[in-house]
Design a protein that fits this description.
It is built from 22 helices and no strands. 63% of the residues lie in helices and 0% in strands. The relative contact order is 0.11. Helix 5 packs antiparallel against helix 6 and helix 9 runs antiparallel to helix 10. The chain is mainly α.
Length: 439
């Protein structure tokens, strides 16, 4: 890939249709206003107090806003193992993201700490700094390892980043392209809930980059992306089902792509949906067949539930029917039977954007929180970032929080119920600025 390293990275971001430079997440809990006791508790190494102090100082909740002191509080929370605090402190330390000064060096260290503590998006940021040589020595092999670490931690953007590196061939991988690796990382990104990765998988299964043509697999991943409200996935899915003459579904998917933001050809999706709607107006029998098909699918779901195949039933309800009613039914049945662990992760990511019932939403929220906590805990406890089965291993650089004996920094275990008390949605918009972007 020609051009400088920065140009290559920017091209990668452009092709990815990235929502922003980086995604971030914050601990989940109710907002807490400032109190005089917070500083003392933070000084006494209370991680929750340090997080809350940083948040209140940054927002000015009950106290005069002081961004500089807020960063200091987040750094202390980072030292106590709060991965999200490392990320926030880093983005505030080097907001321009391109320095070679002490700020960039400090930010790179904070991103690395966040990665070590189990935050995938922090691994992506640390990888970018390492790939570009911002505040640290440029090190392409280590940058690739950081991106892989982020993907292992289920950060979809890290997986997408890797897929595009292998799709285009860049300096970081000696300008090599590799279709199977592009497919592998895109699949991982899609399963982690990244819509653009899903559309890449469906494109590869159309017979591109040496990947064999597979209509069924391409459609499956396009459905997953569309279920994540990714406009281009819905557009591609509309084309796929049109090719097999399912005009009602094609119209519905084009119409959905038309309504969703961020599509590359919104006007084309809207026009095609309109043309198909006119065509179908003269074919009322097609609608009758569609309704018959939906009834048959509902009967099949009943049979699958009766046989105990909850994951198969969910696939047909979510991607075959697109039926909220059936999704609600399966979630309640699986929860009642204690069979939620058998349902794939992707559904619990996708259903966060669906208008499911409040009872079903509570089930989805609780199950996703349980899985995320288990993933984070496994990443924190596993040696060498994933143990012997990992596709990569490296020893994290020592940091200011390393013990005096020189051992590798290991974040202490903190109660999830304490650390994740602040609602992500209540805090994330504060940091959606300066081009950093949000999920």
């Amino acid at each position: 890939m020609g051009g400088s390293g920065v140009d290559a990275m920017l091209k990668r971001l452009g092709v990815l249709v990235a929502a922003g430079f980086l995604g971030w997440s914050a601990p989940a809990a109710a907002q807490t206003n400032w109190s005089p006791a917070l500083e003392g508790k933070c000084a006494a190494k209370d991680a929750v107090a340090c997080w809350t102090l940083g948040e209140t100082l940054l927002k000015g909740q009950g106290v005069t806003a002081d961004p500089k002191k807020a960063v200091g509080a987040f750094v202390r929370a980072c030292d106590l193992g709060v991965a999200e605090a490392c990320y926030i402190a880093a983005t505030r330390t080097d907001p321009e993201k391109r320095g070679t000064n002490a700020d960039a060096m400090a930010a790179a260290g904070l991103f690395t700490k966040g990665c070590e503590a189990g935050l995938g998006s922090s691994c992506l940021s640390a990888g970018i700094y390492t790939e570009q040589g911002w505040g640290v020595s440029k090190d392409h092999p280590r940058a690739l390892m950081l991106y892989e670490r982020g993907c292992t931690l289920r950060d979809g953007e890290s997986c997408r980043y890797l897929s595009q590196i292998w799709a285009f061939g860049e300096a970081i991988n000696n300008s090599r392209t590799d279709g199977p690796k592009t497919l592998d990382w895109s699949v991982k990104g899609c399963n982690a809930g990244d819509g653009p990765s899903c559309v890449t998988v469906s494109w590869l299964y159309a017979g591109n980059m040496g990947i064999g043509f597979n209509q069924a697999a391409g459609e499956r991943y396009a459905r997953m992306g569309c279920g994540l409200d990714h406009a281009d996935s819905c557009y591609n899915l509309g084309y796929m089902v049109f090719q097999r003459k399912d005009y009602v579904e094609a119209r519905n998917f084009y119409a959905r792509s038309c309504r969703l933001p961020g599509g590359r050809d919104t006007a084309g999706a809207c026009k095609t949906a309109g043309d198909l709607n006119t065509f179908l107006a003269n074919r009322s029998d097609e609608d009758a067949r569609y309704e018959a098909t939906q009834r048959a699918r509902a009967d099949e779901i009943t049979r699958l539930l009766g046989s105990g195949d909850y994951n198969g039933a969910m696939y047909r309800a979510a991607y075959g029917m697109g039926s909220i009613e059936q999704v609600n039914r399966i979630l309640l049945a699986a929860s009642s039977a204690g069979r939620l662990p058998e349902i794939d992760d992707i559904y619990f990511v996708a259903f966060q954007t669906w208008n499911i019932s409040s009872q079903a939403r509570n089930i989805v929220t609780a199950e996703k929180r349980r899985r995320d906590a288990a993933q984070r805990q496994a990443a924190r406890l596993a040696p060498a970032y994933g143990g012997s089965s990992s596709s990569w291993s490296w020893t994290p650089s020592s940091s200011s929080s390393s013990s005096s004996s020189g051992s590798t920094y290991t974040p202490p275990r903190i109660s999830e119920s304490d650390i994740y008390r602040n609602a992500r949605e209540n805090t994330r918009t504060t940091y959606c600025n300066a081009g950093w972007g949000c999920r």
